[in-house]
Amino acid sequence: MTAAAETRPWERERAPVLGVGVSVITLSDAVLALDSFVRSRRPHFVCITGVHGVIECRTDAQLRAIHAEADLVTPDGMPLVWMSRLLGFGPISRVYGPDLMREVMRLSPAMGYRHYFYGGAPGVAEALRDRLCAEIPGLTVVGTHCPPFRALTPEEDAAIVAEINAARPDFVWVGLSTPKQETWMASHRGRVAAPVMVGVGAAFDFLAGTKRQAPRWMQRSGLEWFYRLVTEPRRLAGRYGRIVPLFLILATRQLLGRALAGGGAGPQPPRPLAKGN
User: Is the N-terminal amide bond of 195 cis, ω within 30° of 0?
Assistant: First the structure.
C-alpha cells in the first residue's frame, strides 16, 4: 500500500459503536470511496447502517460478521455520528442512504457509471428508475428486479445473478430490509460481477416518491425515527419501541465504561487499517 493510500479516509480505523465498526467518513469521502471501488473492478459491498442495524448486530452474529467484512459501514443516522465523535473519532458526518445514492446518481453521467436496482416492493424499482432518469439526463440504469418475499430457489437465484451480470452494472443498489440486504450482499460478493453493491433499504421508496422523508431539521436532530414512527406506526412501533431505549442504555454504558477506564473522548489522528481496498 502506498503512503497516499494509507491516508484515505475509508481505510482508517473504524469507530467501535456497541461492537460495530463504523467507518469514520463524510459524504464526500464515501463518494470517493465508491469511485475507488468501481475503478478497482474488484467486488465490494457497503452497509448503510443506523441504530437499527447496530442493535440487530448485538444478537445476530452473522450480521455482525457481515458488517466487519463490509468495505464500508457508513453512519446512516446521527446517533452513530455522535457516538463516534464522543469516542474520539473524526472527522465524520452522516452518510445517509438516500443522500449517497442521489449524489452518486448526480455524478454518474460524467463518470459513466451504470446502475442496477435490486429490491423494493413491486413497481418501486421501476418507479425509481423512471424518476431518476427524468431528473438526471444521461443517467444509465441497466436493469431492475423485485424479488419475491419468500426465499429464492437456487435456480431462481442463479437466474437473477446471470441477469445482473449480463447487464454489466458498476453499482447494484439493494433495497431490502435489514438484515436481508446485508445477507444478500455478503452471499453474492464474487458471484455478482459488479464492483460495488450498496444496501440502501428504504432509499428506494424515498427517492421514488412512494414514501415521504423526514424534514431535514428532524434528520439533523436525530429524530427521523420519530417521524417514521408517526407515519408508519403499525409497522414500526415495535421496532422503535425496542431499539431506541436499548441504544440509549447501551451507548451510555459504553461511554461511562470508557470514561472509567481512562479512555476519555478527544480528537485522535487517523489510524490506517492493516488491510487496504
Answer: no
What does the longest C-alpha to C-alpha distance in the chain come to? Answer: 55
Q: Are 197 and 174 in contact (CB under 8 A)?
A: yes
- Tell me which DSSP letter residue 70 carries: S
Residue 121, φ and ψ in degrees, nearest 5: -70, 165
β-strands 20-22, 15-17 pairing: antiparallel
Distance CA 180, CA 189 (A): 14
Considering the entire predicted model, what is its pTM?
A: 0.87
pLDDT digits over 27-51, tens only? Answer: 999 999 999 999 999 999 999 999 9
- In the block, residue with C-alpha cell 463504523: 22
Residue range 132-149, pLDDT digits in tens: 999 999 999 999 999 988
Residue 177 C-alpha from the chain's centroid: 11
Yes or no: say if 175 and 73 are a contact pair by the CB < 8 Å rule. Answer: no
CB under 8 Å to 193, separation ≥6 — which residues? 43, 164, 165, 168
Rg of the Cα trace of the chain? 18
3-state SS class at 253: helix
Place of cell 440502501: 200
3-state secondary structure of 79: helix
Closest C-alpha among 43, 102, 42, 99 to residue 75: 99
Q: How many C-beta atoms lie closer than 10 Å to residue 44's C-beta?
A: 21
How high does pLDDT run on average in the chain? 89
- Which SS3 state, helix, strand or coil, does residue 9 take? helix
Grid coordinates in use for 266? 478527544
